[in-house]
Design brief:
Length: about 190
Amino acid sequence: TEIYDYFRLLYARVGVVHCPKCGREIRHQTVDEIADKVLAMPAGSKILVNAPVVRGRKGEYVKELQNYKKSGYARVKIDGNVYDLQEEIHLEKNIKHNISVVVDRLVVKEGVLKRLTDSLETALKLADGLVVIDCDGKEELFSTSYACPDCGVSIEEVEPRLFSFNTPYGACPDCSGLGFKQLVDPDLI
């Protein structure tokens, strides 16, 4: 009845992608969409544009912190606390850390779009497509790729061909879309 083609189109366009590991909804956003969300915050809100460069990993990160300082960044946020890169920072080697480079501090108001967009692009480049917006202590993570920001699982963009068992893109990798595995029984040989 040819309805299958319409289902594929419906699933690809209206469907919501979730991470196979943690179940979080996965969406990618453009820099403009992220900027619009930030500018929708109440006027006068103080925000930090952060680049999450280390997320839940052990180490001291001495070289990395020196490189950020040499690159002209003034502050980092380590495990929820903001530090000046001019001061000496000692991290426990065997404890997991979250480190974000503070790319910019802004106040939400008119005329800040250009600066915000530049800061977002810088943060996204520094953190491989991730940016954290900290508004008065409340953090929100954004991603420009179809990847789970928590687990790092990447998923290709959803297209109708993914819902077709007749193409290698949508077919099960184990059975090639046949519904069963063709194996040879060594006892019968």
